[in-house]
């Protein structure tokens, strides 16, 4: 079994985390922006508030998966001692704060009376927390000791994949909530944003793959760890494009994709993203003699 594959399998929980959590955070931010800016009736606002649990759960699944990588609660506590000086500690703190803000908001929205002004202020904080969370995740993987990760392409790919998957997940969330504000124009804008970020992400991944040729250490060269990386990039681009096209087809007739179709589109997109994130962990190579 190739060493790169073994390395990625040992980090499979982190593969899942970086696949789901950034996109889930961006989706929460988009839904929060709708709750702030869209003219919503009381029932529609209530439905969207409750549907916010969809991207929240997606993000939580990623975070819980990554928490298993720490091994024990003692290690989790040790992580917090590095806040402010450790990118990993900053990542964990920002993710916990974001999930706390979003989760408490969701619970608060089950109160009998709708406090719209307070909800909007809270949603603004959720947006800020989501952006900080994605930024912290992106910076955590730009590790100076890892030759293949210490590159601008690494944080850029985290941001671009989050902004490609987030709008698609937000669209599914609003559709499940039967949001009237999700008409064809808004749907087209969300899918257009996803498509643009997907194209940019694939281009950035291709540039990263080209850069691997010049990276090596005492063990070997980086392309040898992940020879399938070009195929992984193509599979991600194809899966993402297919998901967006499938979601967009009903718009041609003036309709909207059904919730079931959008769920399937999200599954397809994240499956493709999972493959390319797996390749990212396969290329793990430190300076010196290790991988």
From TrEMBL:
Q: Which UniProt keywords are given for this protein, alphabetically ordered?
A: Membrane, Oxidoreductase, Transmembrane, Transmembrane helix
EC numbers listed for it are 1.8.5.3
Query: Which Pfam families does the record associate with it?
Result: DmsC
A Gene Ontology molecular function term for this protein is: dimethyl sulfoxide reductase activity
* Membrane spanning residue stretches: 12-40, 52-72, 92-109, 121-141, 153-174, 186-208, 228-251, 263-283
Annotated InterPro entries: DmsC
Give me the Gene Ontology terms describing cellular component: dimethyl sulfoxide reductase complex; plasma membrane
GO aspect biological process, one term: anaerobic electron transport chain
Q: What is this protein's record name?
A: Dimethyl sulfoxide reductase anchor subunit
